[in-house]
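In response to reviewer comment 3 from the previous cycle, which asked for concrete evidence that the modeling workflow produces usable outputs, we include below a single protein chain processed end to end. The sequence was submitted unchanged, and the resulting structure tokens are shown without manual editing.
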Amino acid sequence: MTERLLGQAGIGPGMRVLDVGCGGGDVSILVARLVGAEGEVVGIDRDSRMVAAARDRARDADLSGVTFAEGDFRDLGSKHGLFDAAVGRLTLMYQADPVDAVRRVARSVRPGGVIVFQEYDSTVRATSLVPLPLQDRVGRWIWDTFERSGADVHMGFKLYSVFTEAGLSAPEVRAEAIVLTPSTRYPTVPLVRMLLPQMIEYGIATEQEVDVETLERRLVAERQTAGTSYVNLLVFGAWARRPS
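The workflow returned the following structure tokens.
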């Protein structure tokens, strides 16, 4: 979904791209492959551990055109110059003022360049034709953890207004549903594993309830027994160009 979004937004060969809130470098590495050897990607994140992990991954992937820096993307100034595009995934949902964040990101993009963000949204609840209680329970654990950690779990639906209030006219907005079928493997469990310490800290679930080592098997078995698909969540993407 992220690759489709970036392609629709016009990210392509030879572009210089800023990845804000890059985390472990997933999107940066994807973008580096899209822009190719003639392009350049700079990933920015405040978490030094994530930046170090991203550097290791880029080195292991033999990607010379991608670099990472520790810092706040809202205060880049002219340090890294102007970019053809700026991208961010699951970044605005953690910003106290997402409009200001987009406005600041846009300053690092050349006039006519593109700004792209992708965000989750929990407004449309997960559903299936028959009850899937384990899928529902895991979904609640994840969303409750996001919300308790300060994330805006409705950011997807807010993307259009955030872009326009930030001064970006006529943003394009897309939404895709993640559909889990009886034979689908989707990385729900790695996400649960990552969030588990917070789930326990917030009292959302216990380690015994989650039983993360058997969770994938149980989730797949539930869908297979019911013989049904499960709409997991909506993923929104938006892009617009910086005014010339």
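The CA atoms of residues 84 and 113 lie 5 Å apart. We consider this sufficient to address the reviewer's concern, and the full set will be provided in the supplementary archive.
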